[in-house]
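User: two proteins, same treatment. go.

Assistant:
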Amino acid sequence: MSESEEERTLEPGLAAWLERALEDESWRSGLTDAEAERLLGWAMARVGSAPERTGERVRLAMRRIGRAARAPAAEAGELLSPWGLAPPPEWEAWTPGQRLEWTLEALRDWFPDPPSEEPEG
C-alpha cells in the first residue's frame, strides 16, 4: 500500500469518529478552513487507538477550544478552565487564529483519559 493510500485509510473506529466530528459544525463555526484543519489535526492526534473510549472527550474539547478562540477573554477563560488555562493579557488583541494556536500549543501534552472500566458484576 502506498503512503497516500495509508493516509486515506482509517481504522473503522477512527473513521466513524471523524464522520461524527465533521457532522458537528459547532467546533468549526467561525474558523477559517485552515484553522479548522489545524484543530481537527490536533484532535485526531489525541483520539488514539480507542476512539470509542476517548472520542467523545476529544470532540467536546474541540467544541470548547473552537468557542474559546472566538470568545472574549472572560468567556474563553471559562471555556479553558477544565485544563487550568487562563487567556493571556494580549488575548483581546489576537485574531481567532492566534488564539487557537496559543490554545493548541498550551494543550500540546493533553490527551484524554479514557473512561474507567466498571468491573462487571
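Protein 2:
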Amino acid sequence: MKILITGAKGQLGQEFVKRLEKEEKNFLALPRDKLDVSNLKQVLQVF
C-alpha cells in the first residue's frame, strides 16, 4: 500500500506522520505547497 500525507507541516499532517513512524509504515509526507493534488501530472509523478 502506498501512503501519501499531504499538508505534512500542518497539525493533522504532523500527527499522521508521528503515528505512521511509530507503526514503522512506509509513507511519503509532503507539505501542501510541494504537491497540488488537483494537478494529475504532479500526483502521478509522486507515484
